[in-house]
Amino acid sequence: MDLHISTAAPTAAERDTIDAAFALLDPTAADATAGDRPTRSAHAGHAARSRRHLLLPLLHAVHDAAGWLSEGSLNHVARTLQVPPAEVYGVATFYAMFSVEPRAPRVVHVCDDVACGPSGGEEIVAALERDLDGGRACVVRSPCLGLCERAPAVLHQRAGEPDLSQAPATPQAVLAAAHAPADPAGEQAAEADRAFADTTVSAPQTRTGEHLRLLRRVGVVDPTSLDDYRARGGYAALRRAVRLGATRVIAELKDASLTGRGGAAFPTGVKWEGVAQSPERPHHLVCNADESEPGTFKDRVLMEGDPFGLVEAMTIAGYVTGATVGHLYVRGEYPLATRRLQDAIAAARARGHLGDDVMGEGFAFDIDLRRGAGAYICGEETALLESIEGYRGEPRNKPPFPATSGLFGKPTAINNVETLYNVLEVLNIGGGAFAAVGGGRSTGSKLFCVSGAVGSPGVYEVDFGTTLRELLDLAGGTRGTLRTVLLGGAAGGFVLPQDLDVPLTLEGARDIGATLGSGVVLVFDDRADLTGTLRRIAAFFRDESCGQCVPCRVGTVRQEEALARLERGAPLGSRETELALLDDLARVMRDASICGLGQTAPSAVASALDLGLIAAPSHSSNGHGGRR
C-alpha cells in the first residue's frame, strides 16, 4: 500500500459496512461518518480521540465483509474516526488475521505448531497446497489455534460468512469445507459449532472423592440457555456478593488467597482493592480472554461450555471494583467462544442481568466484547489495553501499573478467564473453605491443558498440590516412553521423568526451576523431535514479537536462526558454538526486554540446555535457574 496516496475511495459496499458498524457502535456520533470530511490529526479534539477505541471493531467489520482491507476502506475508517491514515494502516498491519492485500475470500489457517504440526497439521498443509482452489481459498500456516486437545486444528476465515473451526481435522474434511457453497446465513457455521461442541474434550474425569468446581457445568449446562444456567446455581454468587458488599467480597478473596491464573499469580483481592479504593473515576474492568500461549486452551473450554459463568463473574468484578463497563477481549481465533459469549451477553442484557440496574440490585454494569485479531503480544496486559484503545498492541513501560493508570489512563482491574471463574467458587463456598484446598499461595483448584503423547488430551481440573504423575494418570497415561514434559507453555520450561512427583503448586514448580504458567502440560515421548520443537517455539516468538525493544526484536530472530541451523545439522563453527550463542541470547533477552514476551521467549530453549535435552556447551553456567 502506498502511504503517499490518500485519495483512494472505498467501494459502496465498504462504505456501507463501515458506516453501519460505526452507527451501531456509537449511535451518538453517526454524523461523523460524512465521507467528505477531511482527515484530522490525532489531536483533533476530545470527541475524536474518544472514538479511537472503535478502530479495531471497524477494521473487523470491513474485513469480515470483504476479506481484506483496501486502501479506500482504510481511508474511510480514518475519516470516520478522525485518525491519521498512517496510524490506521499501522494498526491494520499489526494483526496477523488482517490482510491489506487482496486475497482469496476463504483463508484456511492450519496450525503447524508444537501440538498440531506432528499430529497431522503438516499433512493437511501439504494436501491443501496440492488440491486447494487458489482462486476461492488459500492456505496459511498458523501458530497455535488453542485446540491442542483435538489436534490437528484448522480455522476457516471467510469473507461475508461466519468463521468456523475444525478439529480434529482431516485433509478431506478441510477441503470439503473450503469448497462448500457460500454460507452467508451461517448454517454451515452453526452445524460445525454443534459438531465441534459435541466432541469437545472437557475432561470430566476426576479422581475418586473429588468433584469439579470450575468445570462442573461444562458439558452439563446448556450454554445457550440463561434459565438452565440459573437452574444449576447461576447468579447465586452475584446475589451473595451484593449481600456481602464490595468490602467484604474483597476480604473473602484475600482470605481465599486467590491468585491470578494467567501466569503472574498476583493476589486478586489486592488488585481489586486497589482499583475499588482509587478516588479517580471512572474505573474499568478488563477480562483478558486472549489466550494465545501455544498449548493453552482452558479458557476456550470455559467460554464455550459455560459462557454465562464468565458474564456473572465479570458482573461481580464490576460491582466490587466500581466499574460500570467490562471489556471482554476474546481471542480472534475462537469463533465458537465468541458467538457463545455474544449470545450470553445479549440474553443477560435482555433479562436485566446487565444494564442500568442489574437484577434490581441498584448498580449498573454492562459488557463490551472485543475481538482480537491474531497477536500473541496482546495477551500482555498493557498491550491489550493499547489494542482496546485503538493502537498497535505494544506493551507499555511499568510503572504506572494498570490498577492506577490503565485503560484510557484510569484505574483498571485486569483478570484472565480462569481467575474470574474462581471468584464464583470463592463466593459459593467462602474464602476460608477455598484456602483449605491446596496451601500457601496455591489455593483452590487449577486447570491444566494436557496434550501431546497422552491417552486422553483435554482440560483437567485438579486441586493445587496434585502431582504431575497423578495428572498424567488422569489423562490416560503417557503414550510410548516418556522423554520430557513442557510445563507452562512455550514461555515455560521442560521437566524430566524423575520430576513427575513434583506437586503442582507455584512453590513446587519453582523448587525445580519450572513454572506453571498458563497451565500447559505438553508431553513428549522418545520419538519426538525436540530440536525441531524448540525451533518452532523460537519461530513463534520471532513472529509474535512486537518489535518495540531491541533485545526481543533481534534476539528472537537470532535464537530461531541458531536453532534452525542446529535442526539442519549445519552449525556455524561448531555445535558447541551455537549452543553458547543460545545461552548468551537467553541472558540478554531475559535481562533487557521490556515485557514478558522477550523475557520468557528463551525459557524453553534455556531449560532444554540446562537439562541436557540438547547438549550444552562445556563452559555454560547454570544461569537460567537450572536444577542440576
Secondary structure elements and pairings:
Elements lengths: L11 H14 L20 H4 L5 H12 L4 H11 L3 H8 L13 E6 L9 H11 L5 E6 L11 E5 L5 E3 L4 H9 L7 H12 L27 H6 L4 H9 L1 H11 L11 H9 L6 E7 L8 H8 L1 H15 L1 E8 L4 H16 L15 E6 L9 H8 L23 E5 H13 L1 H5 L2 E2 L2 E2 L1 E8 L5 E6 L4 H7 L7 E6 L5 E3 L10 H6 L8 E6 L4 H15 L5 H19 L6 H18 L3 H5 L2 H9 L17
Helix pairs in contact: 1-3, 1-4, 3-4, 4-5, 10-14, 10-17, 11-12, 13-14, 13-15, 14-15, 14-17, 21-22, 22-23, 23-25
Structural overview:
The chain has helices spanning 12-25, 46-49, 55-66, 71-81, 85-92, 121-131, 171-179, 187-198, 226-231, 236-244, 246-256, 268-276, 298-305, 307-321, 335-350, 381-388, 417-429, 431-435, 468-474, 506-511, 530-544, 550-568, 575-592, 596-600, 603-611; strands at residues 106-111, 137-142, 154-158, 164-166, 283-289, 323-330, 366-371, 412-416, 438-439, 442-443, 445-452, 458-463, 482-487, 493-495, 520-525. With 628 residues, the protein is of the alpha/beta class. The strands form four sheets. A five-stranded mixed β-sheet has the order 12-11-15-13-14, sandwiched between helices. The protein has a four-stranded mixed β-sheet with strand order 2-1-3-4. Strands 7-6-5-8 form a four-stranded parallel β-sheet, sandwiched between helices. Helix 14 packs across helix 15 and helix 21 (530-544) runs antiparallel to helix 22 (550-568).
